[in-house]
Prior knowledge:
By secondary structure, this protein is an alpha/beta fold. The protein is built from seven helices and seven strands, in the order βαββαβααβαβαβα. It has one domain (2-151). The protein has helices at residues 8-11, 39-42, 50-53, 56-62, 89-98, 117-129, 145-151, and strands at residues 2-3, 18-20, 22-23, 45-48, 70-73, 104-107, 134-137. Strand 6 (104-107), helix 6 and strand 7 form a beta-alpha-beta unit.
Amino acid sequence: MNLLFVPPSIGEMPRLERLHLQQDYSEGMVVIELPRGPWLRSVRWLGLPWECLDDPDNLEVLRSTAQLEFLCALTLPCIGDREDSFDHWDAFFEWVATHPPLRCFGFEPGDVAEVKTALLNAVLNMVQRRPHLILRHVDYDSPGFLLEMLNCEDIPTKPTPFGGW
């Protein structure tokens, strides 16, 4: 879904297992607010833009994802983004490192050519704290989080090569 907001009805889907929310940047950068509700008990695959993951209110909602196994950042912050967007990395990556059901964390960098060293450090610290977490470099063209989400029966068990970065 390419959205400016999440319809409240998504929050009321008690059997929703897979969700991909792509940011619509035609209206500028708008943080997608995640709804609370029964969907949080069932979602296993979730792809969200970085702006959504980096939001403290959304992080509080994500803490309730009881079965979330694969989380993918569909965009990454890049050098030159607003400075305050880096303020919440510690809380976000602390949650990723400690969220019990999470088995796989993916990055879909899109057009980002350079990232802040702080992002790299946060990811390396997360991996050091949780070495069995699978990291995946998914891309728009091969295979892409959306295609993996639609076509895989289960969460991927192997990391992808990071040679394209």
